[in-house]
Design goal:
By secondary structure, the protein is an alpha/beta fold. The protein has 17 helices and 14 strands. The chain has an eight-stranded parallel beta barrel, surrounded by six helices. A three-stranded antiparallel β-sheet has the order 9-10-11. A three-stranded antiparallel β-sheet has the order 12-13-14. It is globular and about 75 Å long. The structure holds 3-methyl-2-oxobutanoic acid (KIV) and zinc ion. The site of 3-methyl-2-oxobutanoic acid has 9 residues, from strand 5 and strand 6.
Length: 527
């Protein structure tokens, strides 16, 4: 067994990314196996210290993803989540043990509300924590333990169970603000007090894990670091349950830009932030809000005359960091229909895409087609173009679509789909072109999924802009979000719907041995 103990200099904060576990728990944010591997590789390359790759007992798919990520990881510690029972912990170890540096992360809800669910007394829970952490530590010498809902756990009990976990061998104690309830001063104070008062606390690393229900996750995480935490748990774009988690890009850039008052270093190559942010937005189906700090489309955009004037004279007047620091090219030089393959390759490289020759050829054909329809092709158009064909499982594919619409209804959609390599066609009607299109998909590929969300956004400006469409479907509690971009909004809508259907098929294949695993169901935490 090879592990790397997390002993780092005092001023170093470890970045623990849980996009693939807590982030993927967001309703609708399902990623395919290949997408998870790709995101893990990007996280590893950008310098994330610990990647929480999944919840191995949750499904065969999660187990395989964590095992593969463990095998492929070059630098990062690979961690898997396990509830407080031996079965979960054993399964987690089976998956992470392949890593150069594996970690088991085990947790149990310690607040009164959470203790009531498995109906354990304080003493029974304390015993379980002792037994399960000891079991994990016998398998792996890098063990993280979390008292879920720590910020609503009575102080005396929290201090008691943290001490038990440390004595049982936990090397990292994570203090989750599971419901985004704490506030910065309280967050700092809690960690400071645990370190000062719990025996053995100075020998392990404290981590902070904040949810964003009150919009304070990033502030709470940074405050926890001021209180002594040396590991921040976060996700790309703040993806996560409900209002999400602390966003990796926010804490990392805050530590960089305000190093004068937040003097802690991370190992993150910040120039890789924008690329991974865009990639996670695409594969999770959760577009980044325009005004999101650091990674939003408007984060470096200046509209008002006064701001533009100031920017032209000195960028520092209205920018506290340079766009290049997070991987933006700064200026956007559009390509057009006369641009050649070399220009496209170089632009894509600048945007973080290194395509193989055949992929470049495919993209070039689609780029020319887009350039014929659009005067200028911007960076965001290109990104949408490269990604729109990165299909999911592709059991269902759009072959052709012709829509007849206008003031005289009903609108018609003539569609051909390739379903499991067989072509099927239909002519469907509907209340508007999008409704007719979706009815055509339902006629060709019957399913019970309900449309929960249909959202259209323009990637770039002008009437020839590419539209990005997001579609969210729900079927028996399973949610899948699909996304696509095209200059034709109806075509983008069809592709987004089909993308969501393909993701739903992936979701169907996930067979959870315990149906409530993803909902943090630890009720069967028996050993
Ligand atoms: O939010 C939370 O409490 C969690 C735990 C599993 C650490 O995600
Ligand atoms: Zn969480």
């Amino acid at each position: 067994m090879t592990t790397t103990p997390d002993t780092r200099p005092e001023n170093r904060v470890l970045i623990f990314d849980t996009t693939l576990r807590d982030g993927e728990q967001s309703p609708g944010a399902t990623m395919t196996h290949a997408e998870k591997l790709e995101i893990a590789e990007l996280l590893d390359e950008m310098g994330v210290d610990i990647i929480e790759a999944g919840f191995p007992i949750a499904s065969e798919g999660d187990f395989k993803a964590v095992s593969e990520i463990a095998k492929q990881s070059k630098n990062a510690t690979i961690c898997g989540l396990a509830r407080a029972n031996y079965k979960d912990i054993d399964r987690c170890w089976e998956a992470v043990k392949h890593a150069r540096s594996p970690r088991i992360h085990t947790f149990i809800g310690t607040s009164p509300l959470h203790r009531a669910i498995p109906n354990l007394t304080k003493d029974e829970m304390a015993q379980r924590i002792h037994d399960t952490v000891t079991h994990a530590r016998n398998l792996c010498d890098n063990v993280q333990w979390s008292p879920m809902d720590a910020t609503r756990t009575e102080w005396d009990y929290l201090a008691r169970v943290v001490e038990i976990a440390i004595k049982a061998g936990a090397t990292t104690i994570n203090i989750p603000d599971t419901v985004g309830y704490t506030a910065p001063m309280e967050s700092a104070q809690l960690i400071r007090r645990l370190i000062a008062e719990v025996p053995g606390a100075d020998e392990i690393i404290f981590a902070t894990h904040c949810h964003n229900d009150l919009g304070m996750a990033t502030a709470n995480s940074l405050a926890a670091v001021e209180g002594g935490a040396r590991q921040i748990e976060c996700t790309i774009n703040g993806l996560g349950e409900r209002a999400g988690n602390t966003a990796l890009e926010e804490v990392v850039m805050a530590l960089k830009v305000r190093h004068d008052i937040l003097p802690w270093d991370t190992g993150i190559d910040t120039r890789k932030i924008m690329n991974i942010s865009r990639r996670v937005a695409t594969v999770s189906g959760f577009p980044v809000q325009f005004n999101k700090a650091i990674v939003g489309k408007n984060a470096f955009a200046h509209e008002s005359g006064i701001h533009q004037d100031g920017m032209l004279k000195n960028a520092e007047t209205f920018e506290i960091m340079r766009p290049e620091d997070v991987g933006l090219s700064g200026t956007s030089l559009p390509l057009g229909k006369h641009s050649g393959r070399a220009a496209l390759r170089s632009k894509l490289k600048e945007l973080g895409f290194e395509l193989a020759d055949n992929q470049l050829n495919d993209t070039f054909v689609r780029f020319k087609d887009l350039a014929d329809r659009k005067k200028e092709v911007y960076d965001d158009d290109l990104i949408a173009l490269v990604r729109q064909n990165e299909a999911v499982s592709d059991r269902v594919r759009l072959k052709s679509l012709k829509v007849i619409c206008g003031t005289e209804g009903p609108q018609h959609a003539e569609m051909t789909l390739t379903i499991d390599d067989e072509e099927k066609s239909v002519d469907a009607t509907g209340d508007g072109p999008v409704d007719a299109t979706f009815n055509a998909i339902k006629a060709l590929f019957p399913h019970e999924a309900r449309l929960q969300l249909y959202q259209v956004a323009a990637v770039t400006e002008g009437t020839d802009a590419q539209a990005t469409v997001s579609v969210r479907l729900e079927e028996d509690g399973r949610i899948a979000t699909g996304q696509s971009a095209d200059t034709d909004t109806v075509v983008a809508s069809a592709k987004a719907y089909i993308n969501a259907v393909n993701r739903l098929l992936v979701r169907r294949e996930k067979t959870a041995p315990n149906a409530d695993v993803k909902g943090v169901g630890y009720m069967d935490a028996g050993q």
